[in-house]
């Protein structure tokens, strides 16, 4: 490491300048002696008083500075490396966290506005349904755990069962067998000359669930109404079933028949 160059301050020059009067006094004494004849022939070889004064001042200043520089040694403990900073920098106030803190959920089924919704990471099933406009009237939410936390990228099926459950309250013996046979006959009627329309008098619960907006619970209520009230006399009688209003009926009218 190269030695540190001495830096001179005003105080150092003031100290050197304080010696100037002493040098002037010595010069005056020498000049007086020379003028009085002391020194004989040497007088003519004497330099100019101003030159002598300047030389003395220079000598004093150089001596002062040299002594000060010798007294100051370069520090060997100086570090040649720059100070290191902490490896873990604090995040600036207001900056977003590493994780987004949000989840995207695809809400499908019996909601007013099906589609992908963006929610907070702490959101639950009920929040996703609310973000999708809420469930349609008559939608059975008993099969959903509304308090369950959501996962990013999941699909939430509202009023739609992954696998159709068997007929609820199936009758035993001959009555149950007769109803099962009637349901199978209804399946043939649905695929027959009805032009793809579903018969609300003959279709089974599973077949009724093929209608848009009709889930397991609503299909079961249609079957229960048919069993308790008899066959539908006209299509608009379907509005007598709980959960089917004017709007729901209007969406089904073109796809059903007696």
Key structural traits:
two-stranded parallel sheet; 8 helices; single chain; 258 residues; mainly alpha; rod-shaped
Describe this structure in words.
With 258 residues, this protein is mostly helical. It has helices at 10-17, 20-35, 49-71, 125-131, 173-190, 205-208, 216-229, 246-252, and strands at 102-109, 115-120, 155-158, 198-199, 256-257. It has a three-stranded mixed beta sheet, covered by helices on one side. The longest helix has 23 residues, at 49-71. The protein is rod-shaped, with a radius of gyration of 53 Å. The model is unreliable at 38-43, 75-80, 82-99, 163-179 and 183-194 (pLDDT under 50). Keywords: DNA-binding, Membrane, Transmembrane, Transmembrane helix. The chain crosses the membrane at residues 51-69. Residues 8-24 have a biased composition (Polar residues). One of its GO terms (molecular function) is DNA binding. Pfam families: HHH_3, SLBB.
């Amino acid at each position: 490491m190269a030695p540190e160059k001495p830096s001179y301050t005003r105080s150092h020059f003031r100290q050197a300048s304080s010696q100037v009067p002493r040098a002037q006094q010595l010069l005056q004494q020498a000049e007086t002696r020379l003028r009085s004849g002391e020194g004989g022939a040497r007088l003519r070889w004497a330099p100019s008083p101003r030159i002598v004064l300047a030389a003395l001042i220079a000598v004093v200043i150089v001596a002062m500075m040299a002594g000060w520089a010798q007294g100051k040694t370069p520090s060997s403990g100086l570090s040649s490396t720059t100070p290191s900073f902490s490896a873990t920098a604090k995040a600036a106030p207001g900056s977003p966290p590493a994780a987004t803190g949000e989840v995207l959920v695809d809400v499908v089924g019996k909601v007013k506005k099906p589609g992908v919704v963006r929610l907070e990471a702490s959101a639950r099933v009920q929040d996703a349904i609310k973000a999708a406009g809420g469930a349609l009237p008559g939608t059975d939410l008993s099969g959903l755990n509304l308090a369950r936390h959501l996962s990013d990228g999941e699909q939430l099926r509202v009023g739609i069962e992954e696998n159709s459950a068997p007929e609820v309250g199936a009758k035993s013996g001959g009555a149950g067998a007769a109803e099962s046979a009637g349901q199978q006959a209804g399946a043939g009627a649905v695929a027959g000359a009805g032009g793809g329309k579903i018969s609300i008098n003959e279709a089974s619960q599973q077949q009724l669930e093929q209608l848009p907006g009709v889930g397991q619970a609503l299909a079961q209520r249609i079957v229960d109404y048919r069993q308790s009230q008899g066959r539908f006399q006209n299509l608009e009688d379907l509005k007598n079933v709980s959960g089917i209003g004017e709007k729901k009926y209007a969406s089904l009218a073109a796809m059903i028949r007696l």
